[in-house]
Design goal:
Length: 340
């Protein structure tokens, strides 16, 4: 019997740390989430108005959003995510846990999850080419120095082409962690129907699933190996003003990779505009979504309602998922797995 009736296939408005306490033990198959990055305003006090206010894009004088370096950010992220990971550990079956992060603070997130008792199984890299470079030139500061005009010009010339140490960010790390299997992977799969990966969740040109993923075409070799479907133009919904919407195809791929049972329950405690729930629903899985901002829970509900309206897409997704599950013949693979 499915647990967590109050939360199942619903989006709950509230603080994830509190709501997680209300979920039953061992009741969730997969956690797929994209928590706050803990850069600037994007933290556990994420506020819709402040994040969406364009005037706030430059939050520190002359520093673009996201570029304020502060050791406290990583420490606060570690402390907060340790609590989140602890609470997820209790509600998750020995199974799968994916969490997006930023390259800058990934290490804090992965350490928090590791220290909460999970096994860090891998780090996936979501690769992209389009992003804004954030490194800054220093001419502005040179001009303010109390030196002669000639000295300023000399320095500007000398430092031509040199900027603050920020490379263009072209990947997002995705942690793949697992609550340790009970006994062996085989016993665990028989008891909980979760904990192995589905190698029929192919990428590119029918390739074995790897830890590099792309959702845009880059070049032939990369596309042949790593491409999952490109996001559809309208998949976000024209009404969606969330700043960090993930591609649906990426979330669907991660769920295909790990969901075995058609009754699987997918939890996203930081649902934002609902991409995880939409992906789960399209695949015919159950979801539990939580977000602290009502503006986003409303957007997520609208996106889910749109899928409902388009029954064709839903049915197609379901069929596709069951075909994949059938094809996966996961028990045939068992001899390859032993507890490591
Ligand atoms: C990176 S966004 C998720 C975006 C999502 N992947 C999407 O595709 O729309 C993180 C979300 O966490 C939410 N959030 C921040 N602190 C929270 C908390 N304490 N409890 C629940 N949600 C929180 C924010 O409102 C934000 O929507």
């Amino acid at each position: 019997m499915l647990k967590n009736k109050k939360f199942l296939n619903k989006i709950t408005l509230g603080d994830a740390l509190k709501i997680l306490l209300e979920l039953e033990d061992n009741s969730v198959d997969i956690v797929l989430t994209d928590p706050p990055y803990f850069l600037d305003k994007l933290d556990n006090n994420w506020n819709y108005q402040k994040v969406n206010n364009r005037k706030n894009t430059w939050i520190v004088k002359s520093l673009p959003a996201g570029m304020k370096f502060d050791k406290q950010q990583g420490m606060a992220f570690y402390d907060w995510y340790s609590k989140v990971a602890d609470r997820i550990f209790r509600v998750l079956k020995p199974g799968g846990f994916f969490s997006f992060s930023s390259p800058r603070l990934y290490h804090r997130m992965a350490s928090a999850v590791d220290d909460a008792g999970f096994n860090i199984r891998d780090c996936l890299m979501w690769l992209y080419t389009q992003n804004q470079a954030k490194a800054m030139g220093l001419n502005h500061f040179i001009k303010k120095r109390n030196i002669s005009k000639e000295a300023k010009n000399d320095l500007i010339q000398k430092l031509d082409g040199w900027k603050t140490p920020q490379l263009k960010s072209c990947f997002e790390p995705i942690m793949m962690a697992q609550k340790p299997a009970e006994k062996t992977f085989l016993e665990n799969m028989i008891n909980y129907e979760v904990g192995l990966i589905n190698i029929n969740a192919k990428t590119g040109d029918n390739m074995f699933p790897s830890n590099v993923l792309a959702t845009e075409k880059i070049n032939n070799i990369l596309d042949r190996c790593f491409l999952v479907a490109k996001p559809k133009k309208d998949e976000k919904g024209f009404f969606n003003d969330h700043q960090t919407v993930k591609p649906l195809s990426l979330c669907e791929h991660l769920l295909r990779l790990t969901s075995f049972s058609k009754n699987s329950v997918v939890l996203d405690p930081f649902l934002g505009s609902g991409t995880t729930a939409v992906a789960a629903k399209k695949l015919g899985l159950n979801y539990i979504g939580i977000d602290i901002n009502q503006e986003y829970t409303r957007i997520a509900e609208q996106r889910l309602a749109d899928i409902e309206a388009d029954a064709n897409i839903f049915e197609k997704g379901k069929e596709q998922n069951f075909t994949l599950l059938k094809q996966s013949n996961i028990f045939g693979l068992m001899p390859c797995y032993s507890k490591v």
